[in-house]
Amino acid sequence: MHCPHPLEKNWEFIARYPMFESDVPIGFESMIIVLPFLTALISAWFTWRGHRASAMGWWAITVAIYVAWCFYHMTTPLKISL
Q: Is residue 32 within 8 Å of residue 18, measured between CB atoms?
């Protein structure tokens, strides 16, 4: 079995034993961060096209996502060391 050198970029080793939170490979949570921006863009597109009801629906979805993320970030511990 190959034992990786500490400075070698071996993602399987880093994912199992991360030194920093930024060493963990990009996953599902980082893709969810894009979601409110995508829904806001869709809402703007419907606004430009003149579809007011659809734009308001997508805007409501965007607000719901923001509220859910706000609740999540306000109730989970902050992972930093000061």
A: no
